[in-house]
Specification:
With 285 residues, the protein is of the alpha/beta class. It has helices at residues 4-11, 24-31, 42-50, 60-73, 89-101, 129-142, 157-160, 162-175, 188-197, 217-223, 233-252, 263-269, 272-282; strands spanning 16-21, 38-40, 78-81, 106-110, 149-154, 179-182, 203-205, 227-230. GO terms for molecular function: lyase activity.
Length: 285
C-alpha cells in the first residue's frame, strides 16, 4: 500500500529530497540515510538491469519487478518512474494498479510519444495534450487509495517551448494530477515561473550534466518546488568510483590506496547479521 507519510509531508509544506535508486545496493544505502522518499529511476534501472539506454526499450514487466523488490527492501516511501504508462489507456490502468499493488507511493507518467527518451536528451516528442489528459484521468480513476499520488510530467519544454509546457502543466493540474512535473526548464527564472503558474505541488528534476540548473534543496524549496529528485546522482557516483577502483587494478595491480566501504559494514548492510544469528541458533541441530 502507498505510504501516507509522503502526501502528509507535501501537504504540510515539507520539502521532499529524493535520491535516485537503481538497484538493491543503492536502495539499502539510501534507505538508511533518513530521506523522506526514494526515487526509482527508469534510466538507472535500464542501465543497471539491461545495460541499455533509457529509450523505451525496457518493458512494464522489467520495471515493475525491480520496483517491487526495491519497495520490499526499503522502509522509505518510494516514487517510481513509469515512463508513458507503457502504452495506451488500458496499459496505464494496468501500470497504476501494478505499481500500487507493489507498494509504490507515487507514480510518474509522462506525455512523450512511444518509444520515450530520457528527459535530458534530444529528440523527444510529445503526444497531443488531450491524450495525456485522458491518461491522467485513467490513472486517477485506477488507484484504490488517495495516498497513492499521480505525478504528471510534460517533456514539451525542449521542443515546443516554456509556454506550451506551462499550458500542459495547468491542464494536468485540472485533470487531477497530484504533482506537476515540467521537465527540463533551462534557467532558474523558468523554474520560478513554473511555480508562479502552477497551483499544485511541483517537482524539480536535478540531473547533473542535464538541461536544468542543479540547485540545493533549500533553493528549490524557496522557488516553490515540493519535491526535488536526483535520479542520476547514485549511478553517476558509482560509475566514477568504479572507474577509479578498476582503473587502479588495471594500471598497477595495486588497490591498497582505493577508498572502499568496510567489508564487515557492507556485509551487515546486506543482512548477514540475520544469517549469522540463524547459524548460531541452529548450529547444533
Amino acid at each position: 500500500m502507498a505510504d501516507p507519510k509522503l502526501k502528509q509531508m507535501i501537504e504540510a509544506g515539507e520539502f521532499i529530497a529524493a535520491p535516485g535508486v537503481f538497484d538493491m545496493i543503492s536502495t539499502l544505502v539510501a534507505d538508511r540515510m533518513g530521506f523522506p522518499a526514494l526515487y526509482v529511476t527508469g534510466y538507472g534501472i535500464a542501465a543497471s538491469h539491461l545495460g541499455l539506454p533509457d529509450a523505451g526499450i525496457m518493458t512494464y514487466t522489467d520495471m515493475e519487478s525491480r520496483v517491487r523488490r526495491i519497495v520490499e527492501g526499503a522502509q522509505t516511501p518510494v516514487i517510481a518512474d513509469a515512463d508513458t504508462g507503457y502504452g495506451g489507456l488500458l496499459n496505464v490502468r494496468h501500470t497504476v494498479r501494478g505499481y500500487e499493488a507493489a507498494g509504490v507511493t507515487a507514480i510518474q507518467i509522462e506525455d512523450q510519444e512511444y518509444p520515450k527518451k530520457c528527459g535530458h536528451t534530444p529528440g523527444r516528442r510529445v503526444v497531443p495534450l488531450e491524450d495525456m489528459i485522458a491518461k491522467i484521468k485513467v490513472a486517477c480513476d485506477s488507484r484504490s487509495s488517495a495516498d497513492f499520488l499521480i505525478i504528471a510530467r510534460t517533456d514539451s519544454r525542449t521542443a515546443l517551448g516554456l509556454d506550451e509546457a506551462l499550458r500542459r502543466g495547468e491542464a494536468f493540474e485540472k485533470a487531477g494530477a497530484d504533482v506537476i512535473f515540467i521537465e527540463a526548464p533551462e534557467t532558474v527564472e523558468e523554474m520560478r515561473i513554473i511555480n508562479d503558474r502552477i497551483g499544485k505541488p511541483t517537482l524539480a528534476n536535478m540531473v547533473s550534466g542535464g538541461r536544468t540548473p542543479v540547485l540545493p534543496s533549500a533553493e528549490l524549496a524557496q522557488l516553490g518546488f515540493a519535491i526535488g529528485i536526483h535520479p542520476a546522482l547514485g549511478f553517476l557516483a558509482v560509475g566514477e568510483a568504479l572507474k577509479h577502483a578498476y582503473g587502479a587494478l588495471a594500471d598497477s595491480g595495486d588497490v591498497s590506496a582505493v577508498a572502499l566501504e568496510d567489508f564487515g559494514d557492507f556485509s551487515k548492510l546486506m543482512g548477514f547479521e540475520d544469517v549469522w544469528a540463524f547459524d548460531r541458533k541452529w548450529a547444533e541441530v
